[in-house]
Amino acid sequence: MTDGHRDNLIGETLIALLKARSLSMRKLSTLSGIDTATISRIVNGKQKPKASHLERFAMHLGVPASKLLQAAGFGSMMQEEQPYTNIQATIASITEILQASKLIGHPFRLEDVEQELSKYEPYALTEEGQRIILNDFPMKLASINGAGPFIEELKRLYEQFCADEVTLEKRAIIGSALLYFVLSADVIPDYVFPIGYLDDAIAVQLVLARLYRDDAHDQPV
């Protein structure tokens, strides 16, 4: 299959998804943070998309990243990307729920969660940040008396954060999700039931995705 045909296929796929969701390229640009001109060139087959472009498109179009990766000719990446694309699909599903909800009084933006995580990364390595995680996380987790995959993922991240062998870089990334969960400055306040912890779940998924990608890049080729 030629690159030109692949570009046409991904363009046709994106056009169909945008139409089905009543989204313009400009709106997709706002949601994904990718320039409108770049999206236009990809749709029109004038620019080959990067995998990172497709992952962000998938997140906001509510489809598995594997669908777009395959349409763009990244077939060799499919098996390697499966755990990551599953995470992306989870993020897309939760984002769709939050964007459709009228309970929070303002539009939900994934970028707001990403910004909070970025802010918490360096804080997680400070003495105060580590104290908050080590002392307050177990109490916060016990207070919600929850169960399920989200809680189990939080517990695993906490165990990794406390492990002696974890690198500082990973500890900062993991700590950002734990601080997001513990501290009250959520994009969606936790008291807004039943969706108050969905942005915390997205924060966890974003961190898991980043850890997966970092681990994949560290593997020998």
UniProtKB/TrEMBL annotation:
GO terms for cellular component: endomembrane system. It comes from the Bacteria. It is found in: Endomembrane system. InterPro entries: Cro/C1-type_HTH, DUF1232, Lambda_DNA-bd_dom_sf. It holds the Pfam family HTH_3. Keywords: Membrane, Transmembrane, Transmembrane helix. It is a multi-pass membrane protein. CDD domains: HTH_XRE (cd00093). This is Uncharacterized membrane protein YkvA, DUF1232 family. It comes from Paenibacillus aquistagni.
